[in-house]
Amino acid sequence: MKNEHNSLPNHDEDKQAAKEIAHAVLFHTESALPQGSFVRSPLQEVVHLADERDKQPGDAHHYRDMDKQEELRLIRNIDAQLDEIFQEQMTS
Description:
Oligomer: single chain
Number of strands: 0
Structural class: mainly alpha
Helix content: 55-70%
Largest sheet: none
Low-confidence stretches: 1-8
């Protein structure tokens, strides 16, 4: 993931949302957190929990190659789950 925080605003993404996404990506491991006490945003917490769930020795999960079709399937699955949650919230 290279320069996501720069590319999101260039694709008509909301700049504040892009900033939050960039921080979630940058802060997804304990080693990237700023010094002192730090409270993760809900998005940062989700990214951190996903990283913890996928953790491998030596942080190998950050360097794993994945089939592009599998990546796309997983992203679409996450999008569908998020859409479902948002729809539930809108109707409640």
